Amino acid sequence: MKGNSIPSGRIGLALGSGSARGWAHIGVIHALEEAGFTVDCVAGTSIGALVGAVYSSGKLFEMEEAVLRLDRKQILMFSDVVLPKSGLIDGRKITNLIEKYVLDTSLEDLPLPLRIIATDLTTGGEVVLQKGNIVEAVRASFSLPGVFIPVRKDGNLLVDGGLVNPVPVSAAKNMGADFVIAVDLNSEMESGSGQNIPADTGKTRGRSGDAVAQVDRAISVLNEKFRLLDIPTVSYIKQKMAKDSFPGIFEILMTSVKIMKRRIAHLSMEANPPDILIQPDLGHINLMGFYYAEEIIAEGYRAAVVELAGWRDANMESVVDDGSTQ
After folding, report:
1. Are the C-beta atoms of residues 83 and 229 closer than 8 Å to each other?
2. How far, in Å, CA of 5 to CA of 65, rounded?
3. Cα–Cα distance, 228 to 270 (Å, whole number)
4. Are 118 and 141 in contact (CB under 8 A)?
5. Neighbour count for residue 38 (Cβ, 10 Å)
6. 79, 160, 187, 268: which is the annotated catalytic residue?
7. What pLDDT shows up at residue 267?
8. Do the beta carbons of residue 181 and residue 257 sit within 8 Å?
9. Chain centre distance of CA 267
10. For residues 233 and 75, which has the higher predicted lDDT (pLDDT)?
11. Are residues 130 and 172 in contact, defined by beta-carbon separation less than 8 angstroms?
12. DSSP per residue, 238-276
C-alpha cells in the first residue's frame, strides 16, 4: 500500500450517526470519488444507514438535489407526532421519503454491499442487518428511543444503531474491508463540554442570530406538540416545562443520546481503528438542522479532502523513510 495514492485491497466506508449532520456523508462521498477512491462496501448507522442505502442504490445525486431544497417547514411536515406510547414520531412519512431514493430490492441484492446497524431493545445487543427490506432496515437504524416508534423485525424490537455502534468500523471490517474510511459526526464532544442544550447566543461561527433562531424554532415546534398532549402521566413534566426555563424534552433526548454515542464511538474506534477518520466540524449545527444541507455537505467535502491529503502525505513520507534506510 505504501507509496500509492489509492489504498490497495478492498475499501470499506463506515458512515456514522448524527441526525442532520449526516448530510456531510454526501460531501465525503463526493471527495472520495474525486480522489479516485472506489468504495467496495458500506456500513451505516442511523443517518449513515440512510445515506449508505441511497449511495448503494446509485441514487445519491437525486437525493442530494432533494435535500438541498429542504426548508424548515418541510422538515416539520415529516414529524408525524403521535400520542406517546413507544415514541413521539411514527416515522411513516420519513419511510415514504426513503422509498423514493432506494432501489426496490433487498439488502443482499444491492449493487454495492451494505450493512445497516440497529440495536435490539430487548437484549441491548447489536444487530447487523444484511438481508431483507432496505427501507425497514434504515427505518430501524434511525429509530431514536423515545422519539421514533421502534421497528419489529424477526421477533426483535429494533431501535437506533448508534446506541451500540455509532461509527460502524467493525461492521465494515467484517465485510472483508482491508482499508476502512470512517466518518464521525459528533467529534466536538471530545474537546468541549458537549453542552449544546442551553439557548444559543446567535454568535455561532459566522451564523446570524436569525438563522440560529430558525433552528431553535424547529425544535420548539416538536416540544410544543408534546406540551399540547393532555395525558396524566406527563402532566408533571408539562408543569415543570411551563414554570422553568429548562430545554424541551426533545432537546434533552437528542443531546443526551449524542453524549452517549460520542463515548461509545470513542471506545469502539479504539478497539477497531479506521485507516482514515474524517470528522467534519459540525458542532455548530443543531441535530435537527436538516435544512442546512448545503453547508453540511460542503463541510463533509472539506473535511474529507483534508484527511485524504493528510493520508497521502503520510503515506509518501513513509516511503521516503523506508527508502532512506535501505
Report:
1. yes
2. 30
3. 44
4. yes
5. 10
6. 160
7. 76
8. no
9. 18
10. 75
11. no
12. HHHHHHS-PPPHHHHHHHHHHHHHHHHHHHHHHHS--SE
Rounded distance, CA 126 to CA 143, Å?
14
Q: CA-to-CA distance for 144 and 150, rounded, in angstroms?
A: 8
Q: Is 141 a catalytic residue?
A: no
Structural contact between residues 160 and 119, judged by C-beta atoms closer than 8 angstroms: yes
Residue 11: HSE in the Cβ half-sphere, 13 Å Cα cutoff: 15
Query: In this predicted model, what pLDDT tens digit does every residue of 87-115 receive, in sequence order?
Result: 455 556 677 778 889 988 999 999 999 99
Q: Which residue among the candidates 17, 19, 46, 56 is catalytic per the annotation? A: 46
- Angle, helices 47-56 vs 24-34, to 10°: value is 40
The predicted structure's pLDDT at residue 289: 83
Longest CA pairwise span in the chain (Å): 77
What's the confidence (pLDDT) of residue 68?
93
Which strand (E) or helix (H) includes residue 3? Answer: none
Q: Checking DSSP bridges between strand 156-160 and strand 114-120, what pairing results, if any?
A: antiparallel
Average pLDDT over residues 131-136: 94
Which residue type occupies 250?
F
> Could you tell me if 296 and 207 are in contact, meaning their C-beta atoms sit under 8 angstroms apart?
no
Q: Which of 140, 60, 74, 143 is nearest to 102 (CA)?
A: 60
3 state SS of 77:
helix
CA atoms lying within 13 Å on the CB side of residue 172 = 37
What are the angstrom distances between the C-alpha of 304 and each of 26, 44, 121?
11, 17, 34
pLDDT, tens digit (0-9, with 9 covering 90-100), for 273-290: 999 999 999 988 877 788
- pTM for the full model? 0.76
86 is catalytic: no
